[in-house]
Design goal:
Number of strands: 2
Shape: elongated
Mean pLDDT: 85
Low-confidence stretches: none
Distance between the termini: 87 Å
């Protein structure tokens, strides 16, 4: 038969309970301090991320405003080029060539380095999770549209080869004529889709407290000067040719 041993702590069970309570409290305090420190660290990262995001939103916002402004100018250029092609019979009447940063072409349109790098980096390191839920959702929408604008820009750049053909005096077959007209239609279609996309995206800026204001976007545009990377030379070309330019703020309000 086994006999049950009766444990009698030297200072009694009350003392044991007190010591266990002290140890448990110490562990909880340590964990709490660590959690507070981690949250403070993430809040600091989130604040820094907001500043970086504002800079990225600002440059993209300037490009979006430009995209809206030049849409009627691009259509006017395409209308003029289309009329020249349609009036040509067996020989293409060459259009004047324009020198751009992408080379010589017949149609002036903006080609911009749309950027999503900051947003993607904040998603990868988890910082975006510490932004308010509604802000995360809105930023997701904004940068999805920025990606679409970038893709449309790439497709327009890819069409430069056919646009250069419009400046050549060459035999014009029915097949080539149809191909050139299709290329022109594609350019104006992408421009109009980009303009609508840009207007809708700028409208989303108003939902984010730290997003740049429209006044800041206009200031950013004014700071872009000729001859520098990222300048707004398409706008200058449109103005110099007396071609129509849209009021981007009015278009954004209309896109609601």
């Amino acid at each position: 038969m086994f006999r049950m041993l009766k444990l009698n702590p030297p200072h009694g069970w009350a003392a044991v309970a007190w010591e266990l309570g002290i140890v448990t409290l110490g562990v909880l305090v340590a964990l709490g301090v660590q959690q507070v420190a981690e949250m403070a660290n993430w809040r600091s990262k989130a604040n820094d991320g907001q500043e970086r995001l504002k800079a990225e939103l600002l440059i993209n916002g300037a490009y979006m405003a430009e995209q809206v402004m030049v849409a009627p100018c691009i259509k006017a250029q395409v209308d003029r080029l289309t009329a020249r092609v349609e009036a040509s019979t067996t020989l293409l009447d060459p259009s004047p060539l324009i020198s751009t940063s992408q080379g010589v072409t017949t149609l002036r349109f903006p080609s911009r380095p749309w950027t999503t790098q900051t947003w993607e980096a904040l998603q990868q390191d988890g910082t975006s999770n510490y932004l308010p839920g509604d802000v995360q959702a809105t930023l997701g929408q904004i940068f999805e549209k920025v990606g679409q604008l970038r893709d449309l820009n790439v497709k327009s750049d890819d069409g430069l080869g056919k646009l250069r053909l419009l400046g050549q005096k060459m035999a014009l077959t029915p097949e080539l004529k149809a191909d050139l007209l299709s290329a022109l239609w594609g350019q104006v279609q992408r421009s109009q889709v980009s303009s609508l996309n840009a207007s809708q995206t700028l409208m989303l800026y108003r939902k984010i407290d730290f997003a740049p204001t429209f006044a800041e976007i206009e200031t950013r545009q004014a700071a872009l000067t000729p001859g520098r990377s990222g300048d707004l030379r398409t706008l200058q070309y449109c103005r110099s040719q007396g071609l129509p330019i849209a009021d981007w703020r009015a278009d954004v309000d209309h896109a609601r």
